[in-house]
Fold this protein.
Amino acid sequence: MAKGTTVRMWRRTIFVLLVLIVGGFGTLVVSLFRLQILEGEELQTRAVNQQTQDTSLSAKRGTIYDCNMKVLATSADVWKIVLDPNYIRKELVPKEGNENIQDVIAERLAAILGKDQETIRALMEKQTYYAVAATKVETDVKDQILELKTELNLGNAIQLEPDYKRYYPYGAFASSVLGFTNSENQGVTGVEASYNSYLSGTPGKLVTAKNAWGIDMPYQYEQRVEAQDGYSIVLTIDEVVQHFLEKSVAEAAESCQARNRACGIVMNVNTGEILAMTVKGDYDPNDPYTITDEADLAAIAAIPDDEEHQEERSEAIRTAQEKQWRNKCISDTYNPGSVFKMVTAAMGIEEGLVNENTTFSCGGYYRVADYNIGCWKTAGHGTETFAQGLSNSCNPVFMQLGELLGADTFFRYFEAFGLTRKTGIDLTGESNSIYYDAAGLGPTELATSSFGQTFRVTPIQMITAAAAVANGGYLVQPHVVSKIIDSDGNIVSTNDTTVKRQVISEETSARVSAMLQETATTGTAKNGYVAGYRIAGKTGTSEKIDEWNAAGREGEKMYIASYCGYAPADDPEIIMLVFFDEPVPQNGEVFGSAIAGPPFAETMAEILPYLGIEPKYTEEELAKLDISTPGVVGQSVESAQTTVSNAGLTYKVYGEGDKVVAQIPEQGESIPKGGTVVLYLDAESAAGTVTVPELTGLTLSQVNARISQAGLNISVSGAALTGSNAVSDTQDIAAGTEVPAGTVVTVNFVDLEAVH
């Protein structure tokens, strides 16, 4: 063979080898670059996911407190039931006599948890050390499982891990504010939703390793990251004030048969702190999916429960649930009606267009464009001053003031009072108002807007605007959360008072408040009067005109009855709005003062003393005030009679004996001046009763006569203290009830002239 040929063959061989080596190593390098650099992070994540299993560990949700640190929502301890299938197969089954242990566990555990045996068996067949059998298990069930573990000597076959369940100790109390959580422990509505990120905390993690066959490895390969508990929330809500408000609104809503729910708000006029907020009917956040409204339940029951109507039925259930969860105070808009006149009055005074003595004339209507728009008093009020027009709630006076203001000025104040934007309250679901801007306020729209029709606002917008009228003109932002704290009580953040702007001067505020005080004392708002507390107030009876128009102006026209007022009028601190949607007409009519005034007065009479606001009584009020009953039990008859007489009271003696063994009213209970204390001298007479008569629909003198004949005492509330045409509308002890002689029956009066 030629030498040249051999050399060429070697060169070719070397070249081929070099190509193979470079190509092979090049491919390897490229593959390594792709796997390690380009896809390394993704592959590493996939490897970790294949080799490990993550199990979330629940964080304890923060507590919700009222302003005095009373618990309103808390996370109660419950349990998560976890099976260890690998332990059962490797540790329990090999033991002699344990061949059927899986059947026994499935049968017994299924009975305790209320599950199918097949479900438990399927869990035990998994190739894992961790299979969740149940969550949110209560303590009584946990105790049964512990007994089962001990009885069968199950070791780690069944484990109990701490878990948490949201619990609301007062049931439906303040549910519209608190909201509720879902099965994942996340807030759905209310404070639970708006502050969910603070309350929920950070879940922990249990990381378990798996071998090449995908089976969980033993416990020494576990890693556990503990959960971090959520922060707690301190509300501005006062549990006592909330109870007072809920009681009065619920009773009034039932009395007037409000068909579209009722609501109430109590707020500090200077800070915007919400002391109480309620919606009736509401729901129990411990069981939020159960529908409580009887009308909704009846409508759902009328839908056939079959496959054809399943979608319709499900939609009806969902709609009813969402309605009861909806916070009417912030999510529903309405025509505020005559309550808004306090805002219009403030506009006119601030602009210098009217003063308290400016004269107007009311003939029962006022002509605007081509329409006669009526006053609630069809006969008219005649000649009256502006202050009297506000006290009389005269529509023509305010339509004329609207003309004086003009569309541009009216809308400028409307916007400044915060009625074109959401208030920014720290709750989910706040709606915005519906209104005409300046360009859209024609003569008719301006006239009707001046007395609270045509536009729609939310109750929270209305009370916030009214607070600006009361507090010197400052528009404050309402809020329900005071501060956020950690588990050691350290403050994480606070919600301080936010003043957006000053809308009117302090002088205008004081002048309007003085007129509103007169309105609540002798005018159309007198049914909200509370002796000694200088209430400034305004009623509203607004038409649901949009709904009526949508119905083609056919059928019954619906109304909203409301009352908004604050106290003390000369140094305001507390403002309150109550609102009853679609009350049933009485004698064909709906009057805001008669429906909303009494619950306003009842609530204010309870919360103002509780909050430490001192009364200042007039001489006339002092003459009518109740006093505290002296205690005479154990005294001789003569001594007891002297004590009672010295207190300005009369007495009646029943039975025979030398000493008083019982008395009605009891020591410390309220009794009207000049009232009668019944003294019992023996047990037999003390056991006797009298029947409470019917006391509603009567004048004060008629009620006094019936009370006297029955041997009872009367405590008067409402318009009887200030009005001359007052008629009784409620009594706190039902007619026909058997009570001891001398018992005090509280009767509330409304003024028939205070109807608007």
User: Anything to note?
Assistant: The domain at 55-235 is CATH 3.90.1310.10 (Penicillin-binding protein 2a (Domain 2)). The chain is about 35% helix and 20% strand. The radius of gyration is 37 Å.
